[in-house]
Design brief:
Layout lengths: L1 E5 L3 H9 L10 E5 L2 H10 L4 E4 L8 H11 L4 E6 L4 H9 L4 E4 L4 H33 L1
Helix pairs in contact: 2-3
Length: 141
């Protein structure tokens, strides 16, 4: 699976990358973006499975990326990762279809648990789509 980290703070991005061995939980590649526009470019060029996105960034906030992803790439799961513990942010993120809302600095266990849960949801969705496709093929033959 592919992970995209969207955060305007390079040190935060580095910390997330270094916090664990991502390959051991099936993350094969990690891309990074310093803002929402760069994230959109990456997402349109290469399918990404899971996005970790900060909320507060210059120009466009992470919730706008969440809106855009859910409208254009509904299979992608987004985890909001922020230092803002405002209930309204969390509520909006979940209402828009965000997978989870984690507070910075997120510890390794929280990040792993959340990313693995998102992977599970994606795998289940793919499995169901495959079963549906196989059922359709069965009916045709």
């Amino acid at each position: 699976m592919k992970l995209l980290i969207v955060d305007d703070e390079p040190l935060v991005v580095e910390d997330i990358i270094r916090i664990t061995d991502w390959k051991r939980i099936n993350i094969d590649s990690i891309a990074t973006a310093p803002n929402v526009e760069a994230a959109k470019r990456i997402l349109t060029e290469d399918p990404i499975d899971i996005v970790l996105c900060d909320i507060e960034m210059p120009q466009v906030i992470g919730l706008e990326l969440l809106r855009w992803v859910k409208a254009n790439l509904p299979e992608t799961e987004i985890v909001i990762l922020t230092c803002h513990a405002q209930f309204s942010y969390a509520q909006t993120a979940l209402r828009l279809g965000g997978f989870d809302y984690l507070l910075k600095p997120a510890d390794e266990a929280s990040l792993l648990r959340t990313v693995m849960a998102a992977e599970g949801k994606i795998a289940q969705r793919r499995h169901m789509a495959e079963r549906s496709r196989q059922g359709t093929l069965w009916e045709l033959h």
